[in-house]
Amino acid sequence: MHMAALISEAYLHEARAAMATETPAIPPKKKRKSRKRPLSNPVDTRRRERQRETQRSASASQDRRYDPVHEEGLELEHQDFGSLETHLQELRDTLTAVQVPEATDGTVSAWAQRQLLTDVRMKTARPMLFNANLSAERIAIQKCHRCCAEEAVIRCLDCVPLDMEFLCATCDMEAHKRNIFHDREAVFNGFLEPIPPTTAVVVDENGQPQFCEQICQLPVPTPRSICECSDDVTVTPWKHISVVTINGRYNVCLPRKSCPSSAAEWTPEVKDLLLYRYWPASTSCQTLYKYDVFTSFEHMKVTAPAMSRQAFLKMLEHRSVQAGRTGSICADTFQRSFFEFCFCQYKQEDMCQVHHFVCPACSPDMLAVCCDGNRKHYRFSKSKGTEEPPIYEGLFLAKDEEVATFVDLVRGNMKSGNDSAVCGTAKFTAGREMSKKSGAQIDEEGIQVAVCRHGFLLRGLNHFRGEIYAYPMFLQKEMSKKANVDFFCMDVTCRYWPYLNKIAEGLPELLPLTEMRPFLSVMHAKAHTAKCEVRWGGRSQDGAGNTVGEEVEQ
């Protein structure tokens, strides 16, 4: 319709232009000079006026009978209307006749073509997949793949590589006496039913398969000799335990090897279990965790930090139910065991001189260290937990006693001053000389950390009051011992640095801190005054390069 309107408008302009060229131009009338006439007779004047009116009426009637300009305009309107309909029809025919070319490799990517082809193939194969899935649920009656004599009553997909997928009742007990972690399925009436390793299938007198309980021992090798006797030793089940793997929970028994002559016996100890990658949840070894469940949980927490421990254990319980096994997994026991496992891994890495809180790129000569706090990492007083000392005390977060001693030392040498913490029109509550402890029932109010330009965590401490200047001063003192730092970045450097110089006058041991260069974070500098941004801002510091000073926020 838009194209049709443009076409009609163009033809109207052509018609008007043609009318303008065919009609002769009428020259403008010349104005006659006014001249005074002598007074005439009134009778003659009225006669001449009547004659002029008669001539004008006659000419008007003749014009109405034939007006070439009017007739030509009507003809042009009819001609334009007809041409508009013609062009509209031509436009419809053109749009109908145009064929849209197929997409070429230049307009559609090869990836999009492959995806389209894959969708078409999957749509075609969907009915076949559904029918094949239904057919796989029905199992035909087969002979035992091991003895080839009895009728198979057990199917084990874990034994497929050994070409023993279907087993009879006798062969199943012999094959899975040691392979207790295989997920088996019982064949009943042509269908499969998952069964736990503590369940066996026997055939009754009528030839019908029946379920019965059996004892499964943890597959831990026993010593070849436990005494000097030559008599045969016996291996019997000992106490019942639970083993948690990445496939869920298993109820098994620990083995016990005894000699009937010398009354000597052997039972697996903690070192024997750790040798075969079983982590005990307690010293009594009532629950064991396979190493794979801890490593999988650790990798999952790294890739998906929002996943909770409860959700992970619910997934393990669901896998147990799918395999025919029952039993819940204690979340508190799992957490304690996982922490102990991680601590042992840390001690091994520490012996190999692997340091996690040291940046390999800029140590020991660091260009800049950024320090900032966050008061959202708080903890309520009623949630303190047990009185047990932390296993990582002083590793990353400084000891609370050391921080409290340093804060008291600074406050003892502090002179009263203006603690307005105002720079220009902005008021920063992120830094002040003194701050009272929160009136709420909060034990720890936040956390303060120091990181390098590459985002490596270097040192941290717990807040027990607001973000006072003594907290970053403690971290600055700690970093001066570990590395040669050039710039010290903060959000309120313009207030902190004069405070540091004032404290260093009374505490000479803090004078090395003043040798660092102050650095106001680039983003926070925009909220300071222009004079402050020029003097302290990171973009104005020689040698800072592209250092931002916002690495804690990042």
From TrEMBL:
Basic residues compositional bias, start-end: 28-38
Cross-referenced InterPro entries: CxC3-like, KDZ
Biased composition (Basic and acidic residues): 44-55
Highest taxon above the source species: Eukaryota
Spans annotated as Disordered: 21-68
A Pfam family matched in the record: KDZ
Domain spans labelled CxC3 like cysteine cluster: 223-321
PANTHER family: CXC3 LIKE CYSTEINE CLUSTER DOMAIN-CONTAINING PROTEIN, SI:DKEY-29D5.2
Protein name per its UniProtKB record: CxC3 like cysteine cluster domain-containing protein
Species, as recorded: Dissostichus mawsoni (Antarctic cod)
